[in-house]
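> tool_call: predict_assembly(chains=two)
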Amino acid sequence: MESNHTYQQLAAFAKAVFLKMGCTDSDAALATKVLLSADLRGIDSHGIARLVGYVRLWELGRINATPNIKIIHETPSTAVIDGDRGLGLIVAPRAMEIAMEKAKQVGTGWVSVKNSNHFGIAGYHAMMALEQEMIGIAMTNASALVAPTYAAEKLLGTNPIAVAIPAGEAAPFVADFATTTAANGKLEIAQRNNTTIPLGWAQDAAGNPTQDANILKNGGALLPLGSEKEQGSHKGYALGSIVDIFSAVLSGASFGPWAPPFPAYVPMPENMPGEGLGHFIGAMRIDAFRPAADFKSNMDLWLNRFRNATPAAGHDQVYVAGDLERAMEKERMQKGIALVDGVQNDLKALAEKMDLNFDRLFKIKME
Amino acid sequence: MESNHTYQQLAAFAKAVFLKMGCTDSDAALATKVLLSADLRGIDSHGIARLVGYVRLWELGRINATPNIKIIHETPSTAVIDGDRGLGLIVAPRAMEIAMEKAKQVGTGWVSVKNSNHFGIAGYHAMMALEQEMIGIAMTNASALVAPTYAAEKLLGTNPIAVAIPAGEAAPFVADFATTTAANGKLEIAQRNNTTIPLGWAQDAAGNPTQDANILKNGGALLPLGSEKEQGSHKGYALGSIVDIFSAVLSGASFGPWAPPFPAYVPMPENMPGEGLGHFIGAMRIDAFRPAADFKSNMDLWLNRFRNATPAAGHDQVYVAGDLERAMEKERMQKGIALVDGVQNDLKALAEKMDLNFDRLFKIKME
């Protein structure tokens, strides 16, 4: 069962929760906008469904609602920032602002972040650059759910990469993907529906192929993009490694199997080599390479050529990265966002715990 | 059948060929070193087997042996260079030198290159940064062999990405991979052996799955990393797109289906939107983020943890990106490089055409 809500209803609720945590009004508004961009774009696992998880980490003291985010090392084109255990939803946009400021000065800006937390969808932060006629890049490490090629251990997170590239008249290119074959959210859907998962998504505790959607609870692991060696899993493993190193080794965050877990009930790893989660954020001014008009006109040609490619048998449209999410955002902003009962109930319980009037915040039900 | 040669023999031959093309002595030496780094590292498709192809492009006037490589646009952290139709083997190292010079000044350097040609293996250029305690990044676009997810057309090249990351005591991290499920060289091996290819590597002209190793000659296409949508091919498609845009749209090279083909017999695409092939080269000083000693000690911890991970059933070692290529390089430098008869015969014919004494250059046969 699902219930449908307007974006404004969910936003009012999320903002009220962040305010109760002690965020400033502007931070609560920003955290809400970043969090709900996931729901709007159809990445339901990273949106309001995670709000309860953020609150639990705040209760444990692992999230600081009023962080003193500061630059601890910098050059004209780089910085490392200490997120002071802030919400990644707040820390990452600040990192992108610094990256864009540096790009304005010297062409590009690159910010590695330590001591942060889950930052929502990578795509939000990358897309911030589009308004400034810049290419935006965002990645983050995450707690270990993924086994390297040939390994029986979980050593990497789903470590997503987002790249947003502006265009002229055409809608921009916005890639945002986990460096695994399938995101963990897809396994959760299979668990809810009591179905198996395709081969190539996960392995069991010994490293054998499996179709068991519950395998991660029994020592199994997600597989890197490519699934197995013959299909290129060493490439997905390399990509996940690069994200971990740029986000966490370069900043002084905790990396690999020591990345802090998101679920509050999972104990923190022992002997953590750094502080918190890490992100890596980049901005490149397009006119640091070519006159912006030349770039945009070539980019429009690129986008139109790919969007108008001849479809394969059984398909009627070729998409560019970000097209489906853009269509989803438009639809959900108009028609509302459906929450499954589990999420709806979690939010009701959260409202009670935080002494919020759930019915008032959700009063204009869409159905 | 194969014949074995020392690195020095192959290098003497390749350098003699580049000199005959009119390269300066130092350019011929550099082009040789870059080209043969592929043979040493086990990427046979990109090494001396391609020498004949470079010569054919030079005969057609598409490669300029004495290019005037110049910066046409720059900021403190960026540049675009015009390769003047030079060998990519020469142009890309020059781009990396510029990137590293900028990184010395402002922390990072990013160079997009137009009007270039095939640059050998991406890993060579990325690894140049290691000696300077920098992270090196190299990518290139290439002629279209790959179909986007849901497309029946070839619109992208195999568009490789290389990332080299220095460490302290441990051997460095060196990723270098095509953004496809399998490289074209693997299909060529299957063609030679008259075997089929695994599902997931290629599709036929209509976009259906195929195991035919010859399918690219009949309108088929390679598949992006991930193979099909359910296994994440839209992620490999996005990666290949990013490489194409950074390398060619950002520089003014020709992109997508208009990238110039490597085989001289393939006609140039019509209405090319830019000049030549494009590359994208980056360098980031590690001490632009953290004190180098801190980074290196954490990076050693990272590398040792992954190399000592528990292997999956049926495997006895977990590797980090670049480990197998490093072992191959050591072995081939000692034991020599085997050439299949086809390549050996091509080189003999090339020697005759260029009036080189093949037997003298190869006189110290290893077997």
